[in-house]
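Postdoc handover notes: sequence design on the structure in folder B. Input tokens:
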């Protein structure tokens, strides 16, 4: 038993004899600061054990006479009736609490998935057609087929098709690159329909696969693009091809003379109808990347929680020798050092599996380490502050908090926020979401226009956590001293 543990028990007993409980709520800031180093997580968790040992030494002979072995009985025995009623009362309360937790917290994740099919139109896809083309204008058969396919009942609600008059390919790709659209289907020139008609009329060989292209980037959201965007683009390509084969080509061929039709027999233009050529600008070729950008982020939240628990004893030893202000500064600094070193180990794990960190920048490993550090510091600081409150008030709440924090962070992170209810816009302010965006830039070289916002939100979480830490430490010390004082008073 350490001297600090003995002093804790004695302080609690002495204070109980000298002050009324309401006076503890009026203590000045100096005494509150002193309690920060006196009532730490580790010392409080061991003070009861210390008091118990003292009492055993003082009353050993008396306890030996008074203690009797309890009489064992069956669960349904009449002698166990009172304990059985108490058991069922506590059991029902615990089950109701767990039910409430499941309904309230798990509903957050289930809610992010609810009716997503009705919100797929929020995923905007650019549909570039020839100037003057419309769904009713047959003068532009290629663009008309494209618009008709997008407006078909089977495809209309799959994505938010956004028609636009012709513009050059570079502009279209740049718009997708800047993440203004999730993809694009575009004609490659402003007269593709005329080129096709002239090739049929003149009996010329013509590469129809170059008329319409598609572009998207899997790296923007590996799960979201592969689940919602890419399959819908493929369905549009099939719908467009069917319309060209079954309606447009027969109509164009019916307008040819017999001589023109005869010239088509020996060329490929007749047999190769236009199709959409899709291109993934940022493909995901290494599936190991899924680990750090998705599941790994969840592990980071859990890992920082372990850091809080494992350093309790070290923090207690520091509290025994440091002044209150120095102890608070120590807690702030040691936490950041812990996150820096733990994130280095986490980064080395990913490097060991040969993940390429240099797609966006040279020296990408260092960038990845810093992103991991900022993420751990942001979520770890929140875990530490809440752990102090939960440990003081009701320790089982710590597990509830961890699940709640994970659910709030991931519900709308690993899929497009646009397909979730508007309530989930709060995800943009969560640390895991912003870390996810930063890691995609690093690992896939996606659009960098949001880097400032992503880094800024992580830093804001770190600053806020460090501002709140002294108050959480003081609350923990004040609350635990009050609790121990009441316990000591009731025992006398």
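Designed sequence:
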């Amino acid at each position: 038993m350490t001297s600090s543990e003995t002093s804790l028990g004695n302080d609690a007993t002495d204070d109980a004899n000298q002050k009324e409980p309401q006076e503890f709520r009026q203590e000045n800031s100096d005494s509150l600061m002193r309690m920060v180093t006196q009532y730490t997580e580790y010392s409080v968790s061991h003070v009861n054990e210390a008091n118990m040992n003292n009492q055993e030494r003082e009353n050993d002979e008396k306890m030996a006479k008074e203690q009797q072995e309890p009489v064992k009985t069956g669960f349904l025995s009449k002698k166990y009736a009172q304990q059985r009623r108490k058991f069922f009362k506590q059991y029902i309360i615990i089950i109701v609490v767990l039910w409430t937790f499941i309904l309230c917290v798990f509903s957050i994740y289930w809610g992010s998935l609810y009716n997503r099919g009705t919100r797929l139109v929020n995923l905007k896809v650019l549909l570039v057609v020839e100037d003057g083309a419309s769904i009713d204008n047959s003068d532009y058969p290629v663009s008309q087929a494209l618009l008709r396919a997008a407006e078909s009942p089977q495809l209309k609600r799959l994505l938010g098709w956004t028609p636009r008059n012709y513009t050059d390919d570079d502009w279209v790709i740049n718009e997708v690159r800047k993440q203004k659209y999730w993809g694009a289907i575009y004609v490659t020139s402003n007269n593709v329909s005329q080129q096709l008609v002239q090739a049929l009329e003149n009996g010329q060989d013509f590469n129809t696969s170059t008329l319409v292209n598609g572009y998207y980037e899997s790296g923007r959201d590996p799960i979201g693009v592969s689940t919602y965007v890419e399959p819908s683009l493929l369905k549009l390509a099939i719908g467009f091809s069917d319309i060209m084969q079954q309606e447009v080509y027969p109509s164009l061929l019916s307008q040819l003379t017999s001589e023109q039709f005869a010239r088509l027999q020996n060329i490929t233009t007749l047999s190769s109808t236009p199709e959409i050529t899709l291109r993934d600008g940022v493909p995901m070729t290494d599936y190991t990347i899924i680990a750090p950008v998705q599941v790994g982020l969840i592990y980071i939240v859990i890992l920082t929680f372990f850091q809080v628990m494992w350093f309790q004893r070290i923090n207690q030893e520091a509290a025994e020798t440091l002044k209150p202000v120095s102890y608070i500064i120590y807690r702030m600094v040691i936490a950041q050092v812990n996150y820096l070193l733990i994130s280095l180990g986490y980064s080395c794990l990913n490097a060991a599996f040969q993940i390429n960190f240099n797609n966006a920048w040279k020296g990408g490993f260092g960038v990845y380490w810093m992103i991991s550090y900022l993420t751990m510091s942001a979520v770890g600081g929140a875990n530490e502050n809440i752990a102090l409150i939960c440990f003081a008030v009701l320790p089982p709440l710590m597990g509830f908090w961890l699940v709640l924090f994970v659910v709030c962070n991931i519900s709308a992170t690993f899929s497009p926020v646009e397909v979730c209810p508007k309530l989930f816009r709060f995800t943009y302010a969560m640390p895991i979401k912003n870390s996810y965006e930063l890691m995609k830039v690093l690992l896939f070289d996606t659009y960098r226009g949001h880097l400032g916002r992503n880094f800024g939100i992580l830093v804001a979480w770190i600053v806020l956590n460090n501002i709140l830490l002294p108050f959480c430490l003081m609350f923990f010390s004040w609350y635990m001293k009050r609790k121990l004082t009441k316990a000591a008073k009731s025992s006398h």
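Context for whoever picks this up: The chain has three domains: 80-113, 116-280, 287-491. Don't rerun without checking with the PI first.
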